[in-house]
Design a protein that fits this description.
The complex is a heterodimer of chains A (272) and B (281). Helices cover 39% and strands 24% of the residues of chain A. Chain A is of the alpha/beta class. In chain A, strand 9 and strand 10 form a beta hairpin. In chain A, helix 6 packs across helix 8 and helix 8 packs parallel to helix 9. Chain B contains eleven helices and no strands. In chain B, helix 5 packs across helix 6 and helix 8 runs antiparallel to helix 11. Classes of the chains: A alpha/beta (272), B mainly alpha (281). The interface between A and B is medium-sized, with 28 and 23 residues.
Chain lengths: 272, 281
Amino acid sequence: MDSLTAAERLSAPALAALIERTGGIQVRELHAWFDRLHALRGISLQIPPRKVTAIIGPSGCGKSTFLRCLNRMHELVAGARVAGQVLLDGQDVYAPGVDPVLVRRRIGMVFQKPNPFPTMSIYDNVAAGWKLVGQRNRRRLDEIVERSLRAAALWDEVKDRLHRPGTSLSGGQQQRLCIARALAVSPEVLLMDEPASALDPASTLRIEELARQLAETVTIAIVTHNMQQAARLSDFTGFFLDGELIEFGTTQQIFTTPGDRRTGEYITGRFG
Amino acid sequence: MDLAFSRRKWMNQMMAALTALWAALVLAPLFLVLAFLMRTGLSAINLEFFTALPGPAGERGGGMANAIVGTVYLLSLASALGVPVGVLAGIFLAEYPNTRLAHLTRFTADVLNGTPSIIMGLFAYTLVVLPLRHFSALAGGVALGVILIPTVVRTTEEIVRLVPQSVREASLALGIPQWKTTLRVVIPTAATGIVTGIMVGLARIAGETAPLLFTAFGNRFWNWDPLQPIAALPIQIFAYAISPFDDWHRQAWAGALVLVTMLLLVNVAARTAAGRQVNLR
């Protein structure tokens, strides 16, 4: 096992320069709190553009909190606080005057449990990101809905029942509907918070394939507690423990030659 | 079988039977009231009762058409005041639950909810009747509306709170602003429940009598002017019940039967609507 630091392995400056030009995310000294609880303790890492980056770690290590900090969802929890920088295209999303609403349109999110809007049809769910902010052009909406459902590999299954309730779909379909809904607003980054943990193995596999495909056009950051999933799916992996980033590197490095003893112990299942 | 076991089993059955008995006892008053009203009031219910104005004192015949319409009229006025205020305040309480204003509003609503309705009548009397110098439908509507507000506030709050956080987050994460999320996602999801809450609240105030005595006052004739006194079923029932005439007594029972039936129907309708509530996971 070598003893290089994560930064050295990645040749950080080169990667950072790449990210600054192409829509990845750079995180600098990110701290997050829930009231007194210091949930993230100075995370610095780079999420490369149009790659799948997996965040792994045991329950309560702060991986979901980290994801929610990237699109400013963390601050919605009462008592939550954030410090540090999250640079999207080199611009800090926490800079004064930045509207979180606009950040969230550029950085989409898929949640652990499928959460389609219960009062809306399949069509309206996908169109929601446009309809609710005033887009009324029917042709344009039709186009967006079809494109997004195709991108989420759901179009063929639902094209004949677009006006049935979104909740009438199966769990796996609902999750792909949520992905389509997130894709509809053309985000540059898609955050996925354990998107398959509530799904059966077949649906899980479909979500994984989908994430891989999407990475051709969208930057993907996925939180997972399933190490096989991280290994199958991701190009880069970050290992979190107790609110700290223990190690970050290419997935192959992390899973074959982890630089930290704790990473090795976690991925071989000795704790977590 | 072992003795202790059969004893336990017997005890269990006894206790189950006992609780079922008390549950049945809870149902008894409603059915007794209905049965009693049917027996005494049904004989006075005929077409005239629903279409005619009250007859002159002491003469047979006449009806309560104006009182039935008056009750609906008063409920409309009360809704115009109570529903917008109650629903909006309830949404505020649910969406900003930990603000100082929310705590204060919630406390006030609970105090209002426990305030005797006659006090609300006095309030409307001071606010509307005294400045206008006469009783009016408007005053009755204000009295009932003020009684309606706290009920609607609290039921709306409860229902809006039932909307899962995940649904709100889904909307916010799409880059939809907070106020649009509340307006276009949260409220539609809670709509059926809010309507149910309003209907239950209306059923509650429809039978209020005390606050109407010195606000709407009652009227033996048709009235459509909100600034004039208006008839209402509860007032009419009260007036007829304390009268010395047998025919009026029978009509009071009939009025009570009509009122209770109306309340029952509203409650059943609210239940049915609640049954169709969007499945909130």
